[in-house]
Amino acid sequence: MRRPSTFLVLVLAGLLTACGGGEDTAPRSAAQGGIRLGFSQVGAESAWRLANTASIEHAATNASVQLDLRVADGKQDNQIAAIREFIAAKVDVIAFSPVVESGWDKVLQEAKDAGIPVIVTDRTVDTTDTSLFATVLGSDFTAEGRKAGEWLVEHFRDHKGPVQIVEIEGTTGSAPANQRRTGFADAIKADTDLKVIDSRDGNFTRAGGEQVMSGFLQEHSDIDVLFAHNDDAGLGAVKAIEAVGKRPGEDIKIITVDASRDGLSALAEGRLNYVIECNPLLGPQLMELVGKVKTGQSIPRRVVVDETTFDREAAKAVLPNRQY
Ligand code: AHR
């Protein structure tokens, strides 16, 4: 199981500190002191993920939580093995960001049987037994997809004739891929001119986005719009579009999700057209929930983080202080 480059994580953690990042300055708490938290992270596939890992590491240090971080390299088997190790080590709380939605019931039941509370963070799990976890902390991915679709409907309001859309999805089976696809489809369905002509998995990576977009460009001569499920895949696609002599943002309109620094820079330059924020700075809220779960305080079953959207002008305005 590989962890992301320590250097990258340190740089991001340093940046969060240097920027003052109100979100990442959770006070130390006596109640949280000495808590042992096992956290299984998805991988290191995107800028979002690196910022999320750095936020959790930084917040754990601030809250005096002993963090055992395992990075799963995008593999569910690695996450299940890590959770079993946390159970064997009798940690106080387990948290994890599930790479895919389904297939967690057995290992979560093992954690429950061992009396260890589990917090699901970032991505959701698909299970009928909601007693298997204490809460879910993260984004509303369906709303993110819907915001992307709503911008598209508005942008092409006066357009006559069909608009050909391609979609670069996130990791197959993951909550953000499933829910962003659904939200987007719901938002555009009333406008019958807006047609998704192709859709493939780009695995939330730049390389994946570039490869998938190259394939789309070979097979479809008339793409008007790309909806990429994250910035990294969208930026990979920008490279593929430029490689065939087309202008990203002009010849093909591009919507992405995350609002990382690189995504917002491309938006400010006009190579992306609209970016939906997905906030990775979940560390402080996670530590607060960990402290409460450990001390038996009640917590909401679902905690959704606040997020916004960016057009070109909004991107230019926030870029100087963007933390990730
Ligand atoms: O689960 C959040 C998603 O995972 C982010 O949008 C993406 O960048 C990451 O890989």
TrEMBL record:
Under Pfam families, the record lists: Peripla_BP_4
User: Periplasmic binding protein domain: which residues?
Assistant: 39-290
Q: Which GO terms describe its cellular component?
A: cell envelope
GO molecular function list: carbohydrate binding
User: Is this entry keyworded Flavoprotein?
Assistant: no
SUPFAM superfamilies assigned: Periplasmic binding protein-like I
Q: Is Signal there in the keyword field?
A: yes
Subcellular location(s): the record lists: Cell envelope
Origin superkingdom:
Bacteria
Q: Which UniProt keywords apply?
A: Signal, Sugar transport, Transport
Q: Which residues form the signal peptide?
A: 1-20
The entry sums up its family as follows: Belongs to the bacterial solute-binding protein 2 family.
Q: What name does this protein carry?
A: Simple sugar transport system substrate-binding protein
